[in-house]
Amino acid sequence: MDFSFTQEQRQLKRSLVDFAKGALNDDLAKRDQAREFSRDLWKRCADFGIQGLPIPAEWGGRGLDMVSVFYALEGLGYGCRDNGLAFSMQAHLWGVSMPLSLFGTPVQKKSYLPKLCDGRMIGSIAMAEPESGSDAFTLKTRAVKKGAGYVLNGSKTLITNAPVADLYLVFAAVEPPDPSGVTAFLVERGAPGLTVGRTLETMGLRTSPLGELSFKDCEVPAGNLLGKPGDGTVIFTGAMELERCGIPASHVGAMERILERCIAYARERRQFGKPIGDFQAVSHKIAEMKIRLETSRLLVYRAAWLKSQERHAILEASIAKAHVGDAYIQTCLDAVQIYGGRGYLVEFELERELRDAIPSRIYSGTSEIQKKIIAGWLGL
Ligand SMILES: Cc1cc2nc3c(=O)[nH]c(=O)nc-3n(C[C@H](O)[C@H](O)[C@H](O)COP(=O)(O)OP(=O)(O)OC[C@H]3O[C@@H](n4cnc5c(N)ncnc54)[C@H](O)[C@@H]3O)c2cc1C
């Protein structure tokens, strides 16, 4: 068993950290307050190659293996304090670019992937609906066959990037119900019958726009089906498998960044004539942060390694997702506590870190659903 990263992987991560620290954190407090997504920062990330990390070079990406990609994303999470930007990036990457790369026709890949990699297009994956979230595949959005194509009717909610995206990967049930089940469609912004609805106000991740979509007799040509009719379940499950370890990889980076801040603060802040880190109640909190960081890291890279071997990691991804969600939130809570009153102040940025961490137990399938998946693998 080899736990080391190669020199190229370490170099890539380091360059990502440097880039993120230097280019992605400007005006963060202001952007968070204004709930502002920055297309300029998105473009900077694309110019650096982040949106193309796992996408084959022939379609404009860097064609890296999953261990390298996740290690780079850990670097993004560490260097980029704008957790919303990192989250939007991953929704785009795992929700649209990777499914296109894995299931797209050569024509679809040629039309979309280079633009998704170089920042001209933003992707958004639309599965959740007002009446279906955890029960993801029980969709009300309907696709009725018309000629060679389909007509979509229905609505989607809680969709990351919806307000700003240029390309939507939309899941719908084919009507009349046929055994083929859920099907995936590529719908471009501006398509007649597609309305981009309101932007939803959120607790955290405020630089990542979240919104609604509705479809009223929205015609999708046959060429815009992703995969075959009925491939929607496989496409969505594959996207979630990668997203459930990709997003946690960035959380590992964020946890390390927060841990380092807490260590520095525990050394510098004095009470009762000594640094607060001398009190076991504080130092043990920090030790627990380190345990959570390292267990999270092991789980993420175990899943990443399986994917880089082109093996399934559905169980491992769910374990990583459930564990890292808890670890990340607890780390943020502890950080606020260690900083005392300052932890509660906006200017120290830990309340934002906590707000940004809260949804990690909800998106890409809630923690309860991850445990349901894990229990299912155990025969329950
Ligand atoms: C920040 C954010 C970004 C998101 N981005 C996207 C996106 O880009 N695309 C997209 O399609 N969706 C997105 N979602 C939606 C997300 O996938 C759903 O919110 C999530 O799957 C939960 O669905 P729900 O909100 O309808 O909750 P519900 O399914 O109504 O669940 C409510 C509660 O019941 C629990 N529960 C439900 N069923 C079970 C069960 N069988 N066993 C035990 N507990 C259960 C849940 O765990 C939860 O605690 C996003 C959500 C958030 C918060």
Task: Characterize this entry briefly.
The protein has helices at 7-23, 28-34, 39-48, 66-79, 83-103, 106-118, 232-268, 280-308, 314-338, 350-357, 367-377, and strands at residues 123-126, 142-146, 149-160, 167-175, 182-188, 194-199, 210-220, 225-226, 270-271, 274-275.
Explained architecture:
The chain is an alpha+beta fold. The protein folds into 3 domains: 7-122, Acyl-CoA dehydrogenase/oxidase, N-terminal domain (Butyryl-Coa Dehydrogenase, subunit A, domain 1, Orthogonal Bundle), CATH 1.10.540.10; 125-229, Butyryl-CoA Dehydrogenase, subunit A, domain 2, CATH 2.40.110.10; 233-377, Butyryl-CoA Dehydrogenase, subunit A, domain 3. 51% of the residues lie in helices and 16% in strands. It is built from 11 helices and 10 strands. The chain has helices spanning 7-23, 28-34, 39-48, 66-79, 83-103, 106-118, 232-268, 280-308, 314-338, 350-357, 367-377; strands at 123-126, 142-146, 149-160, 167-175, 182-188, 194-199, 210-220, 225-226, 270-271, 274-275. Strands 1, 2, 3, 4, 5, 6, 7 and 8 form an 8-stranded mixed β-sheet that branches. Strands 9-10 form a two-stranded antiparallel sheet. A hairpin with a 2-residue loop joins strand 9 and strand 10 (274-275). Helix 4 (66-79) crosses helix 7, helix 4 runs antiparallel to helix 8 (280-308) and helix 9 (314-338) runs antiparallel to helix 11. The longest helix has 37 residues, at 232-268. The protein starts with 6 loop residues before the first helix and ends with a helix. The mean pLDDT is 97. Residues 91, 95, 125-128, 133-134, 158-160, 205, 210, 359, 362-363, 365-366, 368-369, 372 line the site of flavin-adenine dinucleotide.
